[in-house]
Amino acid sequence: MWPHERHSKILELLNEEKRISTQRLAGVLDVSRETVRRDLAELEQEGVLRRVHGGAVAPERTVEPERVFAERLQAHAEEKRAIGEVACEIIPRGATLFIDAGTTTLAFATQITRRGDVNIITNSLDIARLAERGPGCDILLLGGRPHIAVPATYGETTVLEIGRYLVDYAVISPVGLHPARGVTYYEMHEADVARSMIRQARKVMLLCQSGKVGVESRVSVGRLDDIDHLVTDGGSELQIALANGRIHSSRR
Question: What's the pTM?
Answer without folding.
Answer: 0.74
